[in-house]
Amino acid sequence: MDADLKNNILSTGTSLVGIICKDGIVMAGDRKTTAGGHIVMSKNTQKVCPVNDYLVISGTGTASDIEVAKKLIRAQLKLKELRDKKKATVKEAANLIAASNYRNIRQPSMIPFMAGLMVGGVDEDGKTELYSVEPAGSTMKVEDFDANFSSGMPYILGMMEKTYKKDLTMEEGIEMAIDAIKASSERDTASGCGIDVFKITKDGIEHISKRRMEKEYKEHD
């Protein structure tokens, strides 16, 4: 690919986190979208989004690829539900996304597919699961926490390694997710401008926090 084209692809610098709690899952992300990693294109992009009534997806990578992936999986899951007369499981949804990533990355293209995704949801039996899907198509079940391939990943994983413990309550997980996004936003120039937090339990999906960061200038001694 031509070097100039590489430098002009619209991509997202992102901070994402998914946390396993004893009574469900917490997923969170920042709200800044950048081009080339140094131009802020949007300060109000929701990167953690429900695709139906039982599944939440968050994405990092090329913005257009993330949007297409969300639309495709929504349609694929609806078709599968109509065909099988039942909802797909979270694991099946993650594998559908992984298969799509695998095919797209290997098709000859001037601009390759580049998006990493986290998939969290609740099955019909009330079981919650979280999966991390890397851009090339491999799938990993998350047993504790993950940040996928987001640009804030080094800061988030470093913090989580120290603070995470098994059997977190949902309230503890929510505060930890908020702290993780705040920490990465302080150091990762491609992340920031706010936080979205979702909780996923046997009762369903809830968007529990939506925060925007406002500029504030203060006199300094």
| Main sheet attributes: strand count, strand direction, barrel closure | 6 strands, antiparallel
Number of domains: 1
The assigned structural class equals: alpha+beta
Low-confidence parts, pLDDT < 50 over ≥5 residues?
Answer: 1-11
Please write the CATH class name. Answer: Alpha Beta
As a whole number of angstroms, the C-alpha radius of gyration is 17 Å
What is the CATH topology descriptor? Glutamine Phosphoribosylpyrophosphate, subunit 1, domain 1
What fraction of the residues are assigned to beta strands by DSSP?
Answer: 25-35%
Describe the structure.
The chain is an alpha+beta fold and 221 residues long. The chain has one domain: 4-Layer Sandwich (Glutamine Phosphoribosylpyrophosphate, subunit 1, domain 1). Helix content is 33%, strand content 31%. It is built from 5 helices and 13 strands. Strands 1, 6, 7, 8, 9 and 10 form a 6-stranded antiparallel sheet that branches. It has a 5-stranded antiparallel sheet with strand order 11-2-3-12-13, covered by helices on one side. It has a two-stranded antiparallel ribbon with strand order 4-5. A hairpin with a 2-residue loop joins strand 12 (194-201) and strand 13. The protein is globular, with a radius of gyration of 17 Å. The termini are far apart.
